[in-house]
Structures are given as structure tokens and as C-alpha cells.
Amino acid sequence: MATKTCILHVLSLIMFICLPLSKCIHFNFPAVFNFGDSNSDTGELIASGIESLVPPNGETYFQTPSGRYCDGRLIIDFLMDAMDLPFLNAYLDSIGVPSFRKGCNFATAGSTILPATATSVSPFSFGIQVAQFLRFKARVIELIAKSKKFEKYLPKEEYFDEALYMFDIGQNDLAGAFYSKSLDQILASIPTILVEFENGIKKLYDQGARNFWIHNTGPFGCLPQNVARFGTDPSKLDELGCLSAQNQAAKLFNIQLHALCIKLQAQYVDANVTFVDIFNIKFNLIANYSRYGFEQPIMACCGYGGPPLNYDSRISCGQTKILNGTSATAKGCSDSTEYVNWDGIHYTEAANQYVSSQILTGKYSDPPFAEKMPFLLKLKF
Question: Where is the signal peptide, in residue numbers (predicted)?
Fold first, then answer.
């Protein structure tokens, strides 16, 4: 443990010594292209037909399941709102004549950075998402060249160079690994995961992408799903009731991801690479939940089993199943604004709103962007 702590300190020191003179990001983007997992999936996995969502998912904002694993809006929805851009439609969502003029969302729940395997929740790993983008871009350029009637629904060709490219992925690579690997094995795999991520960024850069917004991974050791599975031994929990090993893995991943962002900024001098520290925002929320108006930092709002976690892996939010010979339903709580966690894995709209507000202060980003925030007065939450 002492050796691992030493490694963390050394990596942190290296990063601060090597910080380049980075450009501050602006927020006047014509479009956004997003890549990630369920933290920013606005309907991709549901549109693929792999899974389905039932009420009370979506009840807070959309009044119906919206393809989001949440009672309402996600962080990306609040960020799009802040930039005065419409919510992103999922790449695979072909029903209802979706408009992609202001961007497209390739994020898919369950996705990993590393290539998917036969047992993966989602086949749409980061490399596949990047490939989908390449197909999307090529098809857009082809269609616009054929007819102007598509311009209402598709981004202009120049948008691909001017757009913001957002990323929130990596949590599933780490969290999923705990089911079959030791902590040491997981920590040793992080460089390989980040090489795969770097390769995807390079492909996008080669296609003209210049504005990169990269979220680090959150404290998944505080999710009810993980606490229920790995926290039966109290010695594995910290003072907040979170899994120490899982959060340690998240921290080391984030340190190395931050170092990669600094490397990319130095390598691609004509690009803007912004690293966003989601971990500390979310951890601070869980540690000081009552200060921000919440009553339950870890227990799921929509679940089954009651306190302390209200989570049962056998039954998802909104579902009814026979458990031990008795009908059981994972019901939603009476007031989701009191809860940080929605369904044992994902955050509530109220928590996502808080996280978004902290992101928009600019102080959790490297480089910070507080002085370049033309949208502050336009916030709708």
C-alpha cells in the first residue's frame, strides 16, 4: 500500500512539473460530438434494442423513459443547455426524424474503452464509437453534397472542425474488472486502457477535431451496486461507506488520464484539450451531501431492498420480478431530489444538476476557463 501511495504522489508531482501553457477553452461551438458510457448516453443502448427502460425512468423531466438511465436529465444535457445547444440525439436513434445539425451522441451505456468481449453489456466500445463517428461524418458530407434538403438535419461540413468533442468513458473498464481481477491487476491495466483511448483521440484529431473535453471517472466505489457486491466486509469501506479499493483505482486512472491530456496538449499544439475533474466534484457531493440539500448520499432512489442501499442486482429500476417466491418491484422514491443516486448505478437529475453547476465554475478543469464563460447568465437550472 505504501508503494502505491508513493506512485500516486510521484505521478502527481510529474504532472505539475510538466504542465504546459495550455489554451483556455471557449464555449462558442456550433456542434458537439459525444463519446462515452451511461453517464452521457441519451438513448444509444436503448435504440440498439439491447435493453429497454420502463417508468419511473425519465419521470422528473421527460415524463417518460427517454433512453437515459436517470429520472431526468444527465450532465451532458445541462451542459448542452448551458451552451444554448439542443440535447444530443443518439446516433442509432432513427425514429422521429432526429436532427443531428448541432451534433450527435455516440455514448452507449455499458461501454468500455477497451474492445468489447462476448460478455460485455455493450458492444459499442470506444473504438466502435469512433468508427461510428467516422461513418457519420463521411455520410453527412456525402448527403450534403447531393442535396440541400438535408441541411436542416445535418451539421455543416465545417462544423466537424469547429465542434466540441466530449468524452466520459473508462468507468466500466475499471468497475467491471473488479469482478474477475485483483486491485494490482487492475492498476497494472490502466496504461493499456489509456493507449486505446489515445488511439481514438488521434483518429479524431486526424479527422480535424481540435476541441477535446475529457471527463475523468467518478468515485464508482460509492455506487450502491458496487457497495452491495463488494462491501459486505466493513473493513473494505471508508468513512463515507464507499469502497476504498475501487476509488483508489479511479484515482490512479484519473492521474494517468490527466497526464495523457497534458501530453496531448503538448503534442497537438493547435488543439484545445480540457481535462475535467468529475471525481472530486462527485466525491465532494457525497461527502457533504446535506450541505447541498440532499438526504441520501449512497442509497438508491429507485430500487428494491430498503435501507441502507435499496439495491438488489436481480431487479432493475421499474421492474417487477418474482424473488424467493414473492413478487417484488423496484419502485422509485417519493422525492428524487433528496437522493444522489437514482438506480444504484447512475445519479439522479438533481445530482447531475449539481455536478454540472460545479463543472461550469471552471475551477475543476485544466486549463480552467472561468474567464471565458459567455453562457453564465443563460443557465436554465
Answer: 1-24
Return the half-sphere exposure (C-beta side, CA atoms, 13 A cut-off) of residue 157: 8
Compute the average pLDDT of residues 359-374: 79
Active-site residue (options: 40, 343, 356, 366): 343
Q: Which of 22, 37, 38, 215 is catalytic?
A: 38
Q: Is 343 a catalytic residue?
A: yes
Please report, rounded to a whole number, the percentage of residues in the chain having pLDDT higher than 70. Answer: 90
Residue identified by cell 426524424 is 97
Q: What is the pLDDT of residues 37-94, one digit of tens each?
A: 999 999 999 999 999 999 999 999 999 999 999 999 999 999 999 999 999 999 999 7
Q: With beta carbons less than 8 A apart as the criterion, state whether 160 and 183 touch.
A: no
For residue 167, give Cα distances in angstroms to 20, 273, 275, 285, 320: 21, 11, 10, 21, 34
Residue ranges with strand state E in 169-309: 211-215, 272-276, 296-300
Superfamily for the 26-292 domain: SGNH hydrolase (3.40.50.1110)
Cα dist. 312→41, 174, 268 in Å?
23, 21, 46
pLDDT tens by residue, 6-24: 443 333 333 333 333 334 4
Q: Which of 22, 93, 316, 346 is catalytic?
A: 346
38 part of the active site: yes
**What is the amino acid identity at position 247?**
N
Position 87 scores a pLDDT of 96
User: How far is residue 357's CA from residue 354's CA, in Å, rounded to a whole number?
Assistant: 5
- Indicate the domain borders of the chain: 26-292, 293-360
Whole-prediction pTM value?
0.90
